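FAQ: What does a ligand-bound record look like?

Like this one, built around flavin-adenine dinucleotide:
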Amino acid sequence: MQRLPDKQVEDRAVLDAVLDAGRVAHAGVVDGEGQPYVVPVAFARDGGAVLIHGSTASRLFRTLAAGAPTCLTVTLLEGLVLARSVFESSMHYRSAMVLGAAEPLDGDAKVRGLERITDHLMPGRWTDARQPSRKELAATLVLSLPIVEWSVKVSDGPPDDATEDLVLPVWAGVVPLHETFGAPVATAGLPAGIPVPGYVGRWAAR
Ligand SMILES: Cc1cc2nc3c(=O)[nH]c(=O)nc-3n(C[C@H](O)[C@H](O)[C@H](O)COP(=O)(O)OP(=O)(O)OC[C@H]3O[C@@H](n4cnc5c(N)ncnc54)[C@H](O)[C@@H]3O)c2cc1C
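The answer part, i.e. the structure of the complex:
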């Protein structure tokens, strides 16, 4: 049995749009004792793969680098759906799952992977901030999960009230939910005369 199958979408472009709009994924693994862990991570889509990076000391990253299967989920919460009944109240969302095994990237591909993740999360930052040192690269795993087995669900539209509830004197509709950037806050001790980068100002339009 598959629940809510009507929300499932087969279009690969919809998957790419969810991955490109998301900033945080949750990667699941099961450890040697059968205990599942679901860990939030930053990510970026790079063509036909999802890239994630983390410490060589991280259990999640060491487990994935060894070839453990994973399910990586990205969720975009886009609104609250207020139905006339609590039962039919729900959410607007787009969510994606990518299943499979990730592979570690090395050498130039590893550096390009870090650039791609940085560009996705903080466009403009890679060429502005200091590049990773050899020591920092050695302490970092960059993993590539091919987008082969995947699924996407999209929940949108008005509340789906039962006919007998349509006459109730209860407000019904959708309250959209948006992620927004606030005004940049300079770190303590920043020397005077270093302005907020222009690219940061463009993030709000994303
Ligand atoms: C923000 C948010 C809130 C939600 N809240 C609820 C809730 O409160 N209660 C509830 O029952 N459901 C909720 N859902 C839907 C939930 O994620 C599942 O889709 C649903 O519960 C069906 O689960 P299942 O185990 O029966 O999946 P099945 O229908 O058995 O799944 C079959 C296949 O569909 C794919 N799939 C399933 N769910 C998703 C998904 N969300 N995104 C992409 N692919 C998927 C997987 O590949 C899976 O193997 C929510 C989803 C989101 C994104």
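Follow-up question: can I read anything off the structure? Yes, for example: The mean pLDDT is 95.
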